[in-house]
Amino acid sequence: MGVLIAILGGLLIQKLKLEKYLQPDILVFTGKKQLLQKYQGKSIPLKARLKLWTKEMTEITKKIYPYVLLGVSLGALIHGLVPETLVSQSLASKSWWNVPLAVLLGVPLYANSVSVIPIIEALVNKGVPMGSALAFMTATVTLSIPEAMMLKKVLKWQLLAIFFGITTVAIILIGYLFNLPL
Protein backbone atom coordinates (compact mmCIF):
# COMPACT_ATOMS: atom_id res chain seq x y z
CA MET A 1 0.00 0.00 0.00
CA GLY A 2 2.85 2.37 0.80
CA VAL A 3 4.41 1.83 -2.63
CA LEU A 4 1.04 2.44 -4.29
CA ILE A 5 0.58 5.72 -2.40
CA ALA A 6 4.15 6.76 -3.30
CA ILE A 7 3.52 6.04 -6.99
CA LEU A 8 0.19 7.89 -6.98
CA GLY A 9 1.75 10.85 -5.13
CA GLY A 10 4.62 10.96 -7.61
CA LEU A 11 2.21 10.83 -10.55
CA LEU A 12 0.16 13.64 -9.01
CA ILE A 13 3.25 15.80 -8.53
CA GLN A 14 4.31 15.07 -12.12
CA LYS A 15 0.83 15.77 -13.53
CA LEU A 16 0.70 19.11 -11.71
CA LYS A 17 4.14 19.99 -13.20
CA LEU A 18 5.64 20.95 -9.86
CA GLU A 19 9.26 20.89 -11.08
CA LYS A 20 9.17 24.69 -10.77
CA TYR A 21 9.29 24.16 -6.99
CA LEU A 22 12.70 22.49 -7.10
CA GLN A 23 15.61 24.69 -6.05
CA PRO A 24 17.05 26.15 -9.29
CA ASP A 25 20.63 25.02 -8.68
CA ILE A 26 19.56 21.37 -8.38
CA LEU A 27 18.56 21.38 -12.06
CA VAL A 28 21.93 22.68 -13.29
CA PHE A 29 23.90 19.76 -14.65
CA THR A 30 25.71 18.71 -17.78
CA GLY A 31 23.29 16.71 -19.87
CA LYS A 32 23.78 14.14 -22.58
CA LYS A 33 23.22 16.74 -25.31
CA GLN A 34 26.07 18.91 -24.03
CA LEU A 35 28.40 15.91 -23.82
CA LEU A 36 27.49 14.73 -27.32
CA GLN A 37 28.21 18.23 -28.67
CA LYS A 38 31.56 18.25 -26.92
CA TYR A 39 32.47 14.85 -28.41
CA GLN A 40 30.90 15.74 -31.77
CA GLY A 41 28.31 12.96 -31.68
CA LYS A 42 30.88 10.23 -30.98
CA SER A 43 30.62 7.78 -28.12
CA ILE A 44 31.48 9.43 -24.81
CA PRO A 45 34.46 7.69 -23.19
CA LEU A 46 33.80 6.02 -19.86
CA LYS A 47 36.67 7.97 -18.28
CA ALA A 48 35.00 11.27 -19.26
CA ARG A 49 31.65 10.12 -17.87
CA LEU A 50 33.22 9.04 -14.57
CA LYS A 51 35.05 12.37 -14.29
CA LEU A 52 31.81 14.29 -14.87
CA TRP A 53 29.81 12.12 -12.46
CA THR A 54 32.47 12.51 -9.77
CA LYS A 55 32.56 16.29 -10.26
CA GLU A 56 28.77 16.65 -10.04
CA MET A 57 28.52 14.28 -7.07
CA THR A 58 31.19 16.29 -5.23
CA GLU A 59 29.41 19.59 -5.95
CA ILE A 60 26.04 18.28 -4.75
CA THR A 61 27.60 16.73 -1.64
CA LYS A 62 29.35 20.00 -0.76
CA LYS A 63 26.04 21.87 -1.08
CA ILE A 64 23.95 19.56 1.09
CA TYR A 65 26.55 18.23 3.57
CA PRO A 66 26.21 21.10 6.08
CA TYR A 67 22.43 20.59 6.15
CA VAL A 68 22.78 16.84 6.62
CA LEU A 69 25.26 17.36 9.46
CA LEU A 70 23.05 19.99 11.11
CA GLY A 71 19.94 17.83 10.69
CA VAL A 72 21.54 14.71 12.13
CA SER A 73 23.01 16.71 15.04
CA LEU A 74 19.65 18.30 15.82
CA GLY A 75 17.93 14.92 15.59
CA ALA A 76 20.45 13.32 17.95
CA LEU A 77 19.99 16.13 20.45
CA ILE A 78 16.19 15.84 20.41
CA HIS A 79 16.39 12.03 20.44
CA GLY A 80 18.45 12.17 23.62
CA LEU A 81 16.07 14.62 25.33
CA VAL A 82 12.68 12.95 24.65
CA PRO A 83 12.10 10.10 27.13
CA GLU A 84 10.87 6.78 25.68
CA THR A 85 8.28 6.48 28.48
CA LEU A 86 6.57 9.68 27.31
CA VAL A 87 6.11 8.16 23.87
CA SER A 88 5.02 4.73 25.06
CA GLN A 89 2.50 6.10 27.60
CA SER A 90 1.03 8.48 25.03
CA LEU A 91 0.58 5.77 22.40
CA ALA A 92 -0.54 2.78 24.49
CA SER A 93 -4.27 3.55 24.17
CA LYS A 94 -6.30 2.26 21.26
CA SER A 95 -8.08 5.56 20.55
CA TRP A 96 -8.78 6.88 17.05
CA TRP A 97 -6.26 9.69 17.56
CA ASN A 98 -3.46 7.26 18.41
CA VAL A 99 -2.00 7.04 14.89
CA PRO A 100 -1.99 10.82 14.19
CA LEU A 101 -0.42 11.32 17.63
CA ALA A 102 2.27 8.77 16.79
CA VAL A 103 3.06 10.77 13.65
CA LEU A 104 3.20 14.05 15.60
CA LEU A 105 5.49 12.55 18.24
CA GLY A 106 7.82 11.21 15.54
CA VAL A 107 8.24 14.54 13.73
CA PRO A 108 10.76 16.19 16.11
CA LEU A 109 12.91 13.06 16.22
CA TYR A 110 15.34 11.82 13.60
CA ALA A 111 16.58 8.29 13.09
CA ASN A 112 17.22 5.92 10.27
CA SER A 113 14.83 3.01 9.98
CA VAL A 114 17.33 0.45 11.27
CA SER A 115 18.27 2.35 14.42
CA VAL A 116 14.64 2.93 15.40
CA ILE A 117 13.72 -0.81 15.30
CA PRO A 118 14.75 -1.46 18.94
CA ILE A 119 12.64 1.54 20.00
CA ILE A 120 9.65 0.18 18.09
CA GLU A 121 10.14 -3.23 19.69
CA ALA A 122 10.13 -1.63 23.15
CA LEU A 123 6.99 0.39 22.31
CA VAL A 124 5.11 -2.67 21.04
CA ASN A 125 6.18 -4.63 24.14
CA LYS A 126 4.71 -1.81 26.26
CA GLY A 127 1.33 -2.14 24.57
CA VAL A 128 1.55 0.33 21.69
CA PRO A 129 -0.48 -1.03 18.72
CA MET A 130 1.62 -2.12 15.74
CA GLY A 131 0.12 0.45 13.34
CA SER A 132 0.85 3.27 15.77
CA ALA A 133 4.41 2.03 16.30
CA LEU A 134 4.96 1.82 12.53
CA ALA A 135 3.49 5.31 12.06
CA PHE A 136 5.88 6.62 14.73
CA MET A 137 8.85 4.90 13.08
CA THR A 138 7.97 6.12 9.60
CA ALA A 139 7.44 9.69 10.82
CA THR A 140 10.87 9.73 12.51
CA VAL A 141 12.47 8.66 9.23
CA THR A 142 10.49 10.71 6.69
CA LEU A 143 8.82 13.65 8.44
CA SER A 144 11.42 14.73 10.95
CA ILE A 145 12.54 18.32 11.29
CA PRO A 146 16.12 17.39 10.35
CA GLU A 147 14.78 15.61 7.25
CA ALA A 148 12.87 18.76 6.29
CA MET A 149 16.05 20.82 6.70
CA MET A 150 17.89 18.50 4.35
CA LEU A 151 15.07 18.39 1.78
CA LYS A 152 14.75 22.18 1.90
CA LYS A 153 18.13 22.36 0.22
CA VAL A 154 16.64 20.81 -2.96
CA LEU A 155 12.91 21.61 -2.65
CA LYS A 156 11.14 24.95 -2.34
CA TRP A 157 8.62 25.32 0.50
CA GLN A 158 5.62 24.59 -1.73
CA LEU A 159 6.91 21.21 -2.91
CA LEU A 160 8.21 20.38 0.56
CA ALA A 161 4.70 21.01 1.96
CA ILE A 162 3.14 18.82 -0.73
CA PHE A 163 5.65 16.04 -0.03
CA PHE A 164 5.00 16.23 3.72
CA GLY A 165 1.23 16.33 3.16
CA ILE A 166 1.17 13.25 0.93
CA THR A 167 3.57 11.40 3.22
CA THR A 168 1.62 12.27 6.38
CA VAL A 169 -1.67 11.07 4.89
CA ALA A 170 0.01 7.86 3.69
CA ILE A 171 1.58 7.14 7.08
CA ILE A 172 -1.71 7.69 8.89
CA LEU A 173 -3.66 5.47 6.45
CA ILE A 174 -1.14 2.66 6.74
CA GLY A 175 -1.05 3.03 10.54
CA TYR A 176 -4.84 2.66 10.71
CA LEU A 177 -4.65 -0.32 8.35
CA PHE A 178 -2.17 -2.11 10.62
CA ASN A 179 -4.27 -1.30 13.70
CA LEU A 180 -7.37 -2.98 12.25
CA PRO A 181 -8.33 -6.12 14.15
CA LEU A 182 -7.79 -9.31 12.17
From TrEMBL:
<feature type="transmembrane region" description="Helical">
    <location>
        <begin position="157"/>
        <end position="178"/>
    </location>
</feature>
<keyword id="KW-1133">Transmembrane helix</keyword>
<keyword id="KW-0472">Membrane</keyword>
<feature type="transmembrane region" description="Helical">
    <location>
        <begin position="99"/>
        <end position="120"/>
    </location>
</feature>
<keyword id="KW-0812">Transmembrane</keyword>
<dbReference type="GO" id="GO:0005886">
    <property type="term" value="C:plasma membrane"/>
</dbReference>
<feature type="transmembrane region" description="Helical">
    <location>
        <begin position="64"/>
        <end position="87"/>
    </location>
</feature>
<feature type="transmembrane region" description="Helical">
    <location>
        <begin position="126"/>
        <end position="145"/>
    </location>
</feature>
<keyword id="KW-1003">Cell membrane</keyword>
<comment type="similarity">
    <text>Belongs to the UPF0718 family.</text>
</comment>
<protein>
    <recommendedName>
        <fullName>Permease</fullName>
    </recommendedName>
</protein>
<dbReference type="InterPro" id="IPR053166">
    <property type="entry name" value="UPF0718_permease"/>
</dbReference>
<dbReference type="Pfam" id="PF03773">
    <property type="entry name" value="ArsP_1"/>
</dbReference>
<dbReference type="InterPro" id="IPR005524">
    <property type="entry name" value="DUF318"/>
</dbReference>
